[in-house]
Amino acid sequence: MKHRISFAMTLAALAATAAVSAHAAEEVTLYTTREPALIQPLLSAFTAQTQVKVNTVFVKDGLLERVKAEGDRSPADVLMTVDAGNLLDLVEGGVTQPVKSAALDSAIPANLRGADGQWYTLSMRARVLYAEKNLPLKSFRYEDLADPKWKGKVCIRAGQHPYNTALIAAMIAHDGEAKTEQWLRGVKNNLARKATGGDRDVARDILGGICDVGLANTYYVGHMKAAKEGTDARKWGDAIKVIKPTFANDKSGGTHVNISGASVAKHAPHRENAVKLLEFLVSEPAQNMYAQANYEHPVRKGVALDPVVAQSIGELKIDALPLTEIAKYRKQASALVDKVGFDR
Amino acid sequence: MWQAVSVLVALGVLAPIASLIWLALGADYAHWQHLMQHVLPDATLNTAMLLAGVGVLTLVVGTGCAWLVSAHEFPGRKVLQWALLLPLAMPAYIVAFAYLDLLHPIGPVQGALRWMLGYSSPREWRLPDLRSMGGAIFVLGFVLYPYVYMTARAMFVTQPAHLMEAARMLGESRFGAFRRVALPMARPALAVGLSLALLETLNDIGASEFLGVNTLTVSVYTTWITRTDLAGAAQIACSMLLAVVALVWLERRGRRHQRYGSAQRMRPIQPERLRGAAAWGATLFTALPVLIGFVAPAAYLAWETAKRLRLGQGISSGLWTSLANTLTLAMGVTVLTVLAGLIVAWATRSGVSTRHPSRWQARVATLGYAVPGTVLAIGLLTPALAVDAGVARMLHLPGLPLMSLGVVLVVACTIRFLVIPVGGIESGLQRIPSTLEQASRLLGETPLYTLARVHLPLLRPAIATSALLVFVDAMKELPATLLLRPANFDTLATWLYGEAARGTYEEGAVAALLIVIAGLLPVVLLARTQSGVAGAAGDSDAFAHIPDNPS
Predict the structure, then answer these.
(1) How many domains does chain B divide into?
(2) CATH 3.40.190.10 domain span(s) along chain A
(3) SS3 of residue B75 by DSSP
(4) CATH for A2-124+258-304 (3.40.30.10, 3.30.70.20, 3.40.190.10, 3.40.50.300)
(5) How confident is the model at residue B540 (pLDDT cuts 50, 70, 90)?
(6) Where on this chain does Fe cation bind (chain A) (predicted)?
(7) In chain B, which residue's Cα lies nearest the Cα of A32?
(8) Which pTM does this prediction carry?
(9) Listed range (A18-22, A113-117, A231-235) with the worst mean pLDDT
(10) pLDDT at position A315 over 50
């Protein structure tokens, strides 16, 4: 019994010190599925500007489950993730709250945020074609990837990866499920190796002569092509050129874009700071950092791209299909990947 | 009292599993048609092939090496007998990506081969891709064989020589005696080592996903993450758990009526000196696993780290904090796990008047290892945070104190690794004759005093081995740590994972090297406990004249 009391007292003392140190300064707690190194510079800049300390928890899988389980005692203020579908999952899971902010509404186009302010886009990335740099290829449609002329020449990461399921979902929205299934089978037949690895492996395997073309995200191009001379990453980046594909059926001629975004947590203990952080992240200096440090496409108009990205990719023409529409077909896309045995 | 605490530990392990079952029951079964048709057959086949491959490879390499270093003398044996444990310090996912780099068409190995064969570009000639079933078996087999090697060697070293000698006199060849005497006697130990290796394989998500092998574990993740169907994922996980439990039960049933070993002081096997080609063959056979499972990937990491430092990219301060966090976490998990394991093993030891024949707590305690780490962590979330909120309300604290202090994380890792000390201490206890305890009790000592004065000294090697294994495992632990850690808390493994997820393996190499270096010390200590393993059998002089326990 004595032990139990002393344990409780120790715990109380520890928690009290934690609480005291917490209230000594303003703070905000961020739960993120994005790798800390990607967003740390942004958070440091935020702290420098506002004196608000940012606590981060990098949760790769299970962000929703964790926040749900923590319930109304959750310390989370801001939930940050990539992929529109994941953001909408958080909203549907009931762990977000609506936010009204003129600064956010003016910075972010209406189709890139929740109508009720439950989620906001912070940056964009497109799923583009990496091609061997000497290939005589000027334009490309996503549908072309199933063309038999690419047999044994295509590299791509697992079909079940969210980046790919989102693209396949967009495909279903544009071409219908039956055509998309055919397309998936075609791409599967063209694979030079198993659908696995990461996006940078596409460039690396193109350099390694395993394949000639592949689909991957834009910011990796910046990371690789802007890497130091002599590093492996630089060699991979220098082996490829980038083409922005379009959809065959789509009048707008846009490229498939996905996002990184954030919501304010439903039980945020520091709601004001949470909104402050979101507003900072779409401000001009922060959007510049997204572009320059992470090689992403800023969501705010008028912010310059990183020079390497500008030169190798350029401005994006976004597929007109709303993200919420694409997200509807996500599960169907995942089921299709199973059905055609894409990752086998 | 012992019983009560042991039941409490077992209930702690059951909590996340019960909450998983609850989750699984909460879903409809509509998606099972899709799963049965398109996912599970392939995933089950892949899992079975991977388990079979890794099982055969770890058994052959682990048992073969253990027998060679225990019963023979050959060049390099002294070093190799402990070096064979080194791959334990290597997380499988790190080895996978090291080999992917080493064996990539533009990597050093194929570059050298092309140069020798006179090809100029990988487009003209390249080796088959490592990203395949064979590659996954290769990587996991050479990382996990030490589990078998360790248990097999402990068994061979403590086997009495006279049995082997009798077999030889009856006309068996040396190999025949090994096959018909030493091997059958080592079977329970091999089963323990093999089941650890296979459960690690089943748990692995990093390496197999990285190498493009879609196992059942990968489909659990896909169902949960891509289809946001947690209940469906829980259903697959529970079905896997059932299969594991059934296998473990069958294995135990198979040797229900067998008794092994004895606590008598015996002359251990005298190593036989090998000569000429046989000696060098033995050296080669035992050196290869060390080279493949440790030296090559470690050298690669060291090379990558040196390259980074040469390019003037320093090591960030966050890495040192992560190192400190890793060691603290591993320490806490080790203490708690070994303590809980000791209590469970002691409370359920044979010879205690237990009315429940199956000693269920000890069996339950091993379940945590059979569930993929993230899934276990998800299962733990609900009960742990409910307790946490309760504690906070009772003490009038804000937020979730246990979660924010990392207590939940430590408990999760404890649940996951409990099988190691329970198994290790159980088999240690089995080799201590119950006559010792009876004598102590007859002399009027309490059970606690008996444990402290009689058993603990005898169990020291078993406890040390378990503790070091748990420590190394906790250092490498990734999935539960990713989900349950408090704010601003990174371990080397999560740091590395973050870097790898970002696609910057080069920076991850430094963290990976640190994991390996920090894991080396416990592995070397483990090797030293192992070389003194003759003591682990509890054959100190105290046993010199005690007759075998007639049970």
Answers:
(1) 1
(2) 2-124+258-304, 125-255+318-339
(3) coil
(4) 3.40.190.10
(5) very low
(6) 219-220
(7) B487
(8) 0.86
(9) A18-22
(10) yes
